[in-house]
Write a structure and sequence with these properties.
Blueprint: H1 18-25, E1 30-34, H2 41-55, E2 64-70, H3 73-89, H4 91-96, E3 97-101, E4 107-110, E5 114-120, E6 135-140, H5 148-157, E7 158-168
Parallel strand pairs: 1-7, 2-5, 2-6, 6-7
Antiparallel strand pairs: 3-4, 4-5
């Protein structure tokens, strides 16, 4: 992870709590982080974006796909902007990226054959952005605002060995897949 993200200006480097250590090291197939703000959920998600892309065992000339999703464009813009900036600031990480496609449906292609699709659910709640992806990894941020249509579509796009990581803040709404 990026240690500077765990500290606030003027503060000593905080020690990670037991819960945060468990969050950072959890390798389960289905993970849900349902905690308050400023716990480092998004940081764990950012670390997983890089870790899963570069440690994936991919045979030559094959591609492995992953899906990163948020409910709205405003959340995706922040997540995508933050991680792409970090990737480009580090020469080693930047050298691992083969190609990037921006626009409404960004993609990040790594040299080892891993490809991240960045998708939003959108206000309409249709699954248009989720169709056609064969995901081995699915990461979702701000999933307390997600909807069932897109969640069901993500399940349909998941390969049998797919891992899921959903992160969000409990907001009392019980009608979402996050709960």
């Amino acid at each position: 992870f990026w240690p500077g993200d765990l500290t606030m200006k003027g503060a000593d480097a905080p020690a990670l709590s037991l819960e945060q250590i468990i969050m950072f090291t959890d390798q389960s197939d289905r993970v849900m982080f349902c905690t308050g703000r400023k716990i480092a959920k998004s940081l764990v998600l950012e670390c997983q974006i890089l870790r899963q892309a570069i440690t994936e065992d991919i045979k030559p000339s094959q591609t492995t796909e992953g899906l990163i999703t948020t409910p709205r464009e405003s959340q995706m813009d922040v997540l995508y902007g933050r991680i792409v900036k970090k990737f480009h600031e580090d020469p080693l990480i930047n050298s691992l990226i083969a190609r990037e496609i921006g626009g409404d449906k960004p993609e990040t292609h790594f040299r080892n054959g891993f490809k991240w699709f960045w998708r939003i659910e959108g206000l309409g709640g249709t699954d248009t952005n989720m169709i056609g992806i064969r995901a081995r990894r699915i990461l979702g941020d701000e999933q307390q605002l997600g909807n069932w249509v897109c969640h069901d579509s993500r399940k349909m796009s998941a390969l049998p060995d797919c891992t899921f990581l959903y992160a969000g803040v409990p907001n009392g709404v019980r009608g979402t897949p996050f709960y």
